[in-house]
Write a structure and sequence with these properties.
By secondary structure, chain A is α+β, with helices and mostly antiparallel strands. Chain A is built from 18 helices and 20 strands. Chain B is mainly α. The longest helix of chain B has 38 residues. Classes of the chains: A alpha+beta, B mainly alpha.
Chain lengths: 539, 337
């Protein structure tokens, strides 16, 4: 007997006697399982399976999106060859019919819609879920409020399958806000059974369990390690997804995520450094999809409340001294849409984001500094969020170098991720880079948060302008009334004003980069920028 | 022995109280606002205030402290906001992962470093002594994440011998039923050899990384201790009496050189357990070090407190075990409590 044969037979013997036996790696069952399973790797995972939970993080949104249904969702269109959600076209998900009235909208639910435990989805569940979203506080309540959905009284059950949502005021964002992740429909009876007096909305239960009617349900979640989702074959929200099982593993090291992709072990990864994406794209072994963030920009902001940035001349000087092209080349490796250097004859459009006309022009910047009485320059700090240091740090270093040429000496201030929001809220950082993007892709939505005088946390510049407020409010009203001409005029007006006053300097529109194996298809871009498993296909 | 152990444990109580107070205060002093972090990307000040109230962070510090201590007394370490799980269950699942990795790494390191150190001392100035010096210097001067990435690159990416660096177990295996939390032991208890192999495979590279790093202190300490013992009178006497070299070195010299080696081992182990964050990051290992660091980055108090407390308890127990071991190795050493 040869040694190898002997060893083999011993292993077989041992495997045979073992209880229970795990299938060996080369068995057909295993190969089949691999074929039906999609392995996703990313840096971090969810901390809560319910978007209504306290402090649910962004990966948690992805779980909610795939495990719960909303009344309505968006149709797809194609942008640059990639399926891209259509902001203006809604499709029915749990609803079967949507009737929009003057001051209300009425939904009829699908007859055969059932939750994952088999109980039918009723209007009562919808009301309970929407009540929950506007009542639990924190982010979900805030997001509902963005579409003027704030009170439980707005949600009226007409019969078992019919629910009416009353408008608080005319607001163009109300219907789109019903198609975001937050207004998901939850199995109210199941959750109520697991609720306690201290926790009437059952947040503790839904944190660990999915209780929806969605296309997938979580069967195993080990926080910080993996999430396993299985397909729900009773799903009625759309065509049955092709992938049976999703395994989502957290791999903190970016280099290893890339190695896993290149070796063909992982199917999809979507948070690799820009440089890796460019190199993978050039290598051509994987499918790489890059899509600009909808309604999002990376920018350099200035605190306009305090000198020296209270002077528009100084802000324009800074805008002339930013090394835009260097940032595009050396930091992003081209993976971003430039928002600078529009040609002189460029006419402002009623859209957002769009490029401004500034380019790197040190001579002009120096002249503007002199006009502002700062010919000798000044000292200040340039802050960034360490949580996104991969992009932020090189941007700041390049900007520091360039600003030094016009006499602005900057000290770079690295703010830990946990601290960043607190620092933003204080509104004292004189100069910083940051990114903002809105789920709802409407120019006035962006401007309400970032430029309006009511000074939300995202108006990081503390920018105050009566003219700006009037234009933003005008656009919101015009949109609600369907006044296209008035709306376009106001949108162009506030974009022009923002670019004349320049409290924040847009740099570029970042890209969402997704790398996947050649045999994986069906990737769709969504406003939330996370993966929609329901459309993915393997093989 | 029992009385000694009891006495030692009692003296540990003040340090534990100190650790509880200090960690509580330290986490509060840290920059960063938990509420702001967890209120989400689009929070209004009002939403942040709501989250703060929900987390009980709007209460005065003494009140928070009393609540914290009361919960601790009930075995409740609080809930982690980054993972969403009770800290105690997080630690219970992650500590064995780290301990298994660290112990295996340490065993490998010991198996190489102790003989290497002894040989280097016996043949001082020889080739093996120089080899020992080079291995030790190289091991300690290569940062662990670098060794880790290098091993992954060579053995996984280029050669394809090692499994994907995806944590403790391949995606298509289910972990063994939990008994000890050590996958190797649990899979053997479940009498599942295939699973045992599947559990062992992803352990090898990270354990080797840790071993390379911890070789140095153990080898150097063994060598130094052996050198001083070999120069002592009783060794000379033993040799003069014509005892076999093997007997002199192992029975007489090494036993006397073991005290500092055991001390070093204890230190290396406790250091590695908490500090192998980088190895855990590289190998996506769900260990306790990366858990604490992630929590720290998110200003998530409860896991940090839980981590420090667990570590403090472990250190106390480890030191106690080492002290007891001293008595076994060298009866002349008695711990005075």
């Amino acid at each position: 007997m040869k040694r190898r044969d002997f060893l083999k037979s011993m292993t077989a013997l041992a495997a045979g006697s073992a209880l229970p036996t795990a299938p060996a790696i080369w068995s057909p069952a295993k190969a089949q399982a691999r074929q039906e399973t999609l392995l996703i790797v990313s840096e971090s995972g969810p901390n809560n399976l319910d978007i209504h939970g306290v402090g649910t993080n962004v990966p948690g949104y992805e779980v909610s999106w795939n495990c719960y249904d909303r009344l309505i969702s968006h149709e797809m269109k194609t942008v640059n060859g990639t399926p891209y959600y259509d902001r203006d076209k809604f499709k029915m998900e749990l609803a079967d019919d949507m009737a929009i009235g003057d001051m209300s909208v009425t939904f009829k639910l699908k007859k055969n819609a059932v939750f994952q435990d088999g109980t039918p989805v009723t209007a009562k569940d919808v009301k309970w879920s929407l009540d929950r979203a506007v009542s639990v506080g924190g982010f979900p309540t805030f997001q509902m409020g963005a579409g003027s959905l704030t009170k439980p009284e707005q949600f009226v059950v007409l019969d078992d399958r019919t629910i009416r949502i009353d408008f608080l005021r005319k607001d163009r964002l109300t219907i789109p806000d019903l198609a975001v992740i937050v207004p998901c429909v939850i199995n109210s009876e199941l959750v109520k059974k697991n609720a306690t007096e201290k926790d009437p909305w059952g947040l503790e239960y839904t944190k660990q369990n999915t209780a929806g009617s969605g296309a997938y349900r979580v069967t195993n979640w080990t926080a910080g390690t993996q999430v396993v989702l299985e397909r729900n074959d009773k799903w009625t929200g759309g065509p049955l997804p092709r992938v049976k099982r999703i395994v989502w593993r957290m791999v903190p090291s970016a280099g290893n995520r890339r190695a896993l992709l290149e070796r063909g072990d992982a199917d999809i990864s979507y948070d690799l450094p820009n440089k890796d994406f460019v190199e993978l794209k050039d290598a051509g072994k994987l499918t790489i999809v890059s899509t600009p963030y909808s309604n999002g920009i990376q920018y350099i902001g200035m605190n306009v409340k305090n000198p020296p940035f209270d002077d528009p001349k100084v802000r324009q000087a800074v805008a002339c001294a930013i090394p835009y092209q260097k940032i595009m080349d050396a930091v992003l490796f081209g993976l971003g849409r430039p928002l600078f250097g529009a040609p002189a004859d460029y006419r402002t459009e009623a859209a957002w984001p769009q490029p401004h006309k500034f380019t790197t022009d040190i001579a002009k910047a120096k002249q503007l500094m002199a006009e502002a009485g700062h010919a000798d320059g000044f000292e200040t700090t340039l802050s960034f969020d360490l949580g996104f240091a991969g992009v932020n740090e090189p941007i700041c270093v390049l900007t520091q170098e360039s600003l030094a040429q016009i006499g602005i000496k900057t000290t770079i201030n690295k703010v830990p991720g946990a601290n960043w929001r607190t620092e933003l809220n204080k509104k004292v950082m004189p100069l910083y880079t940051n990114v903002f993007s809105g789920w709802l892709d409407y120019p006035e939505y962006f401007f309400i948060w970032c430029y309006h005088g009511k000074n939300s946390i995202f108006n990081t510049m503390s920018y105050q302008s009566k003219a700006m407020d009037a234009l933003i409010d005008g656009a919101s009203v015009a949109a609600a009334e369907g006044d296209k001409a008035g709306y376009d005029k106001d949108v162009k007006g506030f974009v022009d004003l923002a670019y004349a006053d320049m409290p924040r300097i847009p740099l570029y529109q970042p890209y969402v980069n997704v790398a996947m194996q050649k045999n994986v298809s069906g990737y769709q871009y969504w406003f939330h920028r996370r993966l929609d498993y329901r459309a993915l296909v393997k093989g | 022995m029992l009385r000694q152990t009891g006495k030692r444990l009692i003296t540990a109580i003040p340090s534990l109280i100190g650790v509880i107070v200090v960690t509580f205060l330290l986490t509060r002093v840290l920059p960063g606002d938990t509420a702001a972090y967890f209120a989400g990307p689009a929070a209004t000040p009002q939403a942040i205030a709501e989250v703060r109230a929900k987390l009980g962070l709007d209460q005065p510090l003494p009140k928070q402290f009393v609540r914290y201590v009361r919960d601790l007394a009930h075995g409740d370490f609080g809930t982690s906001l980054t993972t969403g799980q009770p800290v105690i269950s997080d630690i219970a699942s992650r500590l064995p992962a780290s301990a298994e990795l660290t112990l295996l790494g340490l065993v490998i390191a010991m198996a190489i470093a102790v003989p290497l150190g002894i040989l280097a001392a016996v043949r001082q100035g020889s080739l093996i002594d120089h080899a020992c010096r080079i291995v030790a210097t190289a091991g300690v001067s290569l940062p662990v994440f670098f060794t880790g990435l290098l091993l992954v690159y060579a053995f996984y990416f280029l050669l394809g011998w090692a499994p994907a660096p995806l944590g403790r177990l391949d995606v298509f295996y289910t972990p063994p039923p939990q008994v000890t939390g050590f996958y190797l032991i649990d899979s053997l208890l479940a009498r599942d050899l295939a699973l045992f192999r599947a559990c062992l495979a992803p352990l090898i590279l990270p354990a080797a990384t840790l071993a390379i790093f911890s070789l140095a202190p153990i080898a150097r300490m063994t060598r130094a201790a052996m050198l001083s013992v070999l120069a002592s009178d009783f060794v000379r006497t033993a040799r003069a009496n014509g005892l076999a070299p093997h007997r002199v070195i192992v029975t007489y010299a090494f036993r006397n050189a073991m005290l500092p080696v055991v001390t070093t081992l204890g230190m290396v182990f406790s250091f590695l357990l908490g500090a192998n964050v980088l190895v855990e990051k590289v190998f996506a290992w769900p260990g306790i070090g990366s858990y604490a660091v992630e929590a720290l980055i998110a200003s998530d108090y409860a896991p940090v407190q839980g981590f420090v407390l667990t570590m403090a308890v472990l250190y106390v127990l480890l030191n106690l075990a080492i002290d007891l071991l001293y008595g076994v190795i060298d009866p002349r050493v008695r711990i005075e409590a």
